[in-house]
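Write out this protein's structure.
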Amino acid sequence: MMKVLLESTTAGFLKHAVFFFFLFLVQISFGQTNPDIPDFARYKINKEEFMKRRAAAIAKMRGIADSTTIIDPQLRIDAIRQMEAQEEQQRTAGSNNLIGDAWVPIGPAPIPNGQVAAGPSTAVSGRVISIAVHPTNPNIVYAGTAQGGLYRTTNGGTTWTPIMDNAQSLAIGAIAISPSSPETVYVGTGEPNFSADSYFGVGVYRIDNASTTATLSGPFNLDAGAANIFSGRAIGKIIVHPTNPAVIFVCSTSGVGGIISASGTTPSRGIYRCDNATAANPVFNKLTGFIGNLNVSVHDIAIDPANPNILIAIPIATGVNQGGIYRSTNALDHIPANVTFTQTFIVNSTSTSTLNGELTAIHPSGDVDATFYAALGFNGGTVQRSIDGGLTWTQRIDNNFCGGQCFYDIAIAVDPTNVNTVYLGGDPSLVAAKSTNGGTSFTESKSGVHVDTHALTVSESDPTQVWLGTDGGVYKSTNSGTTWTNQNTAQFSATQFMSIDVHPTDPNFSLGGTQDNGTNWYQPAGTWFRADFGDGGYAVIDQNATDNVNVRMYHTYFNAATLQGYGTVATTASATEGNWAFRGCNGVSGNGIPCGGAVNFYAPLERGPGNPNTIYYGANILYRYADNGTNHTAVSQSISGSPISSIGISPQNDNIRIVGLNDGNVYGTSTGANPLLNLDPSNTIPNVSVA
């Protein structure tokens, strides 16, 4: 639930990061008041260091060395196509290998004891970014995840079916159902949340016969000049014309590939319109009249449901007085370049968290104009309302609903039958809340819900049904947001794993760390259980276990200068939250591991041979122990000031050790000697993190 803000600039790439943190960590990851959370996880690290190291860890795993690195997103697309061709060649040849063999998903389906904001623990899955409900059948719902693809339910969330697993991107930023032809669904790829664990996309997909055969076409990403205008970016919103499924509006944002921009050459961000979206090869045209055709992220757009010529947009524009809300009254002009915009609300800031916002609209029967609500990061979280079609705005409430995480946690929705009923979601200070007075006050309901809200959607045909997407998956209310029911059923698998390790004799016994959903244990009975809290990192199981009861296990949490080490248990009975004994520095040096020095957010943990297995932990120095972690010995020098990113130990000889570093250096020994020798003296290996 802790994310990194990535600032956008009009130059088309991300120049710097502003890191935010918040103190509301109760019952989620590193709670101040939860008695089960050990002391080491409370306040042993300042917020800036935590966010920076987490972002750097994710960037490292994507091959990004520093802020000057430029990664072309087309390389990933080309690699996917090459991989698919190789897999098909292997299948055709009938090779008996892992590519040709059948794989069986084992989950989590879902994690049964999730980390929630309040109340009893409920099942959780991975991050849900977007939700769309069929306009006449409330049981047909589509949910898009951060890295798990698109899911569909036709029975109100009882069961789910993945319908985009063959797409080039499984990061789903936007979903739009055609109001006049609901079997046509448009899906925008790339997560538009400006966080270090977001990932860029490849454009827009169209799904025909969406509720049945779900025929997938795309990705579509070309303009009239055949230039790719979406790959490497993320799609923040898609809007379909109320009566013409061939006309869609699409807004794009920066495509994140770690703490820096995915590429310095990615296409221009902004608002695009497509007038032939149902054709075999749709073409998109940029609305160049928006802020002088600046290259700026646009996280959300909305139209007047009764007059699609009126288009409202919220840009992440960092120029003086460029931020805020913009309005067009000729969005359907037959010449896209002639579409004009007027700024109707000003936000002057260089902070993405302040500039970001979400929109929702309703055109009440009998009213001349539509009513728009805007949830803005302005002033830490405010709700603005316009009752004249977006021409003027009035602040309804300043309740800091998204705090310092408005770049990431922000959602708003209006009841399609009641202009005064509004739903709002943000960071852990306000997970999901309802207003019945047009946004002047809100009542929160969050029992059993994972925090970090990204999506709120009200069913048009049954407004008592409200859908919610958070870092813990998908939820539904059948009583207008009063209570929430977990919809993370067995088929909804979107958990993001960092690592996995397996028992020496039982393949059903595994341990793995996950993003924001703890360290999870796959038990011998084939069921999952969250064994510990927080951001799970590397997991290790001692290979000397002779049964499923006496099993020595290890896993890392996040790491920083004042928090270096890992947790361990000796039996499965003790593998529950709060029972993991911590080894290492927890504000003060411990078990032979001092505080200070360079260390990765996900510090590597590796086992060697022996009984018990020797365990190696990597910070800026390689540490070894052979007594269940009571005493560690430094077995390397501090190497070039760069943290260790990977560790390799011979399974047959504990003296053969190799380490890779963030800067691309590789050091090792075949005799157990310290200091380690430079194994790449000619600098043949690229100067990026060794995985």
